[in-house]
Design goal:
seven-stranded mixed β-sheet, 10 helices
Length: 377
Amino acid sequence: MSYRRWFRSFLGAERLHFAAHSHHLWPDVTHDAHDRAWRDAAEHADHKWDLVLGEVVPETQGHVAARIGLPDPTTIAIAPNTHELVNRLVSSLPQPLRILSTDGEFHSFRRQADRWEEAKLAFVDRVPVEPFATFPDRFVDAAHDGHDLVYVSHVFYDSAYAIPDLAGLVDALPLDPVVVIDGYHGFMAIPTDIGPIGHRVFYTAGGYKYAMAGEGVCFMHCPPGVVSRPVDTGWFAGFGALEGEQIGVPYPRDAARFWGATFDPTPLYRFNAVQRLLDTEGIDVAAIHDHVMGLISRFVAGLAGSQALGELIPSWGSVEERGHFLTFRGPDTARLHDRLDAAGVVTDRRGDRLRIGFGIYHDEGDVDSLLGIVRSL
């Protein structure tokens, strides 16, 4: 099945966009949603926040909770980016922090963790993600009493390797540290149910990638009772108590304790519109995953073992699950990326790794066109 009809505006440009893992194209319904946000602001002015906090935000929380298997939408905190949510969480942990993480985390956390170490605010133990087959066992073995924070990706941004049993890995960790799952490259791509571990993990993701809603709408699931009073706090966390006498620094019990300050609600309108489209069409994450993995399989088969793009990591068939992009490692990554770009193919690279991402807006014709261009190179 082709879903290209949902993306007519973004697909109108002369390009083959194979960077869904970086910036997924937006469905056409987001245009009207964007406009709806403007019209609501014009109609309600100052009172638009009654609408945003009373209707728009709860709808967003409900969609997120349903997609990741959570029973209570009020455990979802909203922010323009995941970086501020993670920093807000860390603000209440003892310093210097002892952190367990990996050498494959996205730049946002990697850079921040490096700076914490530089400022002697943290000590970080980084477990190599490769070899992929042994990563879960090695990561659990590295966890020991004394870590304050465990931070690990569900799907790693530089390889598409996905932890095969996320709940099992979390259950095997010590009970003491705060656990954060970076779900950004898995959310709305790989069917994810954090319900069994939702009582102890923080889970972050957002709209820029497979949620198809663009920048500015991110979230964090915040387990009840864990880190109840973040030091880094915005005035929206006290929104419900503004009209009364301000005594001390009160916090709500739900995820609103992690809210920041004034934000642009427009991205939430886009996110909600995409989720409603999927629900109306009867398309769940499993259907998206099946569609995309079929296209990825077609592309890999079309390469027929060729090393033209470099070494595929993880190798095909070597892992139980992978994200919605393929990572090729080799010495000619920069040249290949530039030649693909000159041929009208949008990909991206990270160092010696070329990433080619697939989305629901692709069909078999797009894959065959990409294969033709790759062969011509």
